[in-house]
C-alpha cells in the first residue's frame, strides 16, 4: 500500500488509495484535508457516521482516509500489543462499506478494485450486493491479494446480520466456514481474481500443509490464482545513500560495510573483530518466523563462535527466552526487544549473514534488503524465500537455503555458510553478486499491471 501505488502511478496508472484514518496517523505532518462529505453506514440496524480526509497527489497517488470515531479513534491499528480489538470485524466492515459508499457518492468508475487481506475481503461482495440491503450490481472487477493466509478475519455467525448482505452470502460456498464467518474466504470466493505475494506461496496455499484450511477454496479457484513476488523500494533501502547507517558503501567499494559491522559489534558489547561472523535477525517473535527452530539450534549456533544480534518483539515466551540467552552469553548474544527503524537499517548493514528460518513465508522482504546490503541471507526454502534466494551451490548463488523444517537441516546450512565466510575471496564475490540483484518495486508494478490487464479482459 506504500510503494506499489507509487510505482504504478509512475507507469501511468491512475491510482486512488483508501485506508482507515487510524488515530496514530499524524494529520498535520501528512497534510491531510477534511473533505466535505459525510458517510452514513449501516451495520445491521445501527448506523454510523464516517468522515473522509484526503492527501492529494502525494508521490503521484491521492489517498482517501476513512474515519469513524467509534472505530478508529483508539491506539494502534489492529489492537494492543497483547491482543486484537474485540470489535475488529465491525471496524473493518465499516471501513469496507464506507469504501463502496464513497465510490458511489463521488461517482467513481474504477476499472478494478484491488483489495488487500481480510480487512478488505468483503469488498467484492459489497460491490455486487450493496451495503444496506439494496442490490447494487456493481460491475467493477476485483483483485484479492493474500499477504498471509493465516490471518482470515473470523467472526461469530451471529454478526452476519451486520453485513446487510443477502442470506445467499452465508453458505458453505461463500462466507460460512465451520459455523462462523470467514472474511478472507469471502474475498477468495467473490473476487474476479486472486494473487499471493510470491509464485511459490501461490502454489503452497493450495496444499493442506500451507493452506490454513482454505486450500480447498484456493484449489477450486486455481484458474484465477496468481503469484507475484513483492518488490522493495530502493530509495528507502540503499546502502549507498542510507542515512541511518554509520558509513555508506556499494558493491564497488565495500569499505563502509566493515565500519557498519564494527559499529554493531561495539553497540552490542561484542569483541570488535572483522573475522568473527555476525549473524543478524530482525523479526516478529512468533512461531511462523521459525523461532522454535532457532531456539532449538541455539547451542549449536553458539558453538560456531559466531556473534548473534536480534531485533524484534512478539510472544512473551520468546522475548523472555532471548533475554535469558543474552544474559547468559553477553559476549555472543545481544537482543533488542523493541521496534526500531534505525536499528533495523544498522543491523542489515552491519551483519554478515541474515537469518530467516521461517516455518512459512508468503514473501518476506528482509532477504531482499539483506542482499542489497551485502548481508547474505540464510533461509528456509519456502514461499518467497524459495523464489528470491538462489543457493550458493547453484550457478548465480546469492545465499544459503535449507529444506525441511528441522534443526539438523538449519545447522548444516549455517555451517556450510560459515565455511564460505571463512574464505574471504569467495565471500566477497558472493556479497557483490547478491548486491547486484534487482528486486525493485518497479518490476513488481509491471507484473501487477499485466495482471490487471488480464483481469479486465476476462
Automatic annotation (TrEMBL):
The keyword RNA-binding does not apply. GO terms for molecular function: alpha-1,4-glucan glucosyltransferase (ADP-glucose donor) activity; alpha-1,4-glucan glucosyltransferase (UDP-glucose donor) activity. It comes from the Bacteria. Synthesizes alpha-1,4-glucan chains using ADP-glucose. NCBIfam families: glgA. Belongs to the glycosyltransferase 1 family. Bacterial/plant glycogen synthase subfamily. This is Glycogen synthase. It comes from Pontiella desulfatans.
